[in-house]
Amino acid sequence: VLEMTVPQIKKLIEYAYYLHNENELQAGGLDFDIITNNHGKVEKIKLYKNGKELISGKFKVAINDYMFSAYSIENEKVLQEFEKPDAEVIIDYLKKKKV
Fold this sequence. Notes:
Elements: E1 2-5, H1 6-20, E2 31-36, E3 42-49, E4 52-54, E5 58-61, H2 65-70, E6 77-78, H3 86-96
Antiparallel strand pairs: 1-5, 1-6, 2-3, 3-4
């Protein structure tokens, strides 16, 4: 769990967009629009919470360990880390399932 500002969140979204040349991020509790020009270059990113555009502020952002290690996240402030990486949590969950 990271504490991130609106500009930091926008940079993360932009970084992910350029990594895949499309939006592959999924967000819960936050909506966003990526506005590009005719050449696919990001011109603007708009963030929304409950339909209201976010201009400023700090937010708690939960990301998985892959994104934390592989993505470019500037000046992040780590608020909480979990003992197990997500892959181990998923494996543990599947082992408990009978079907």
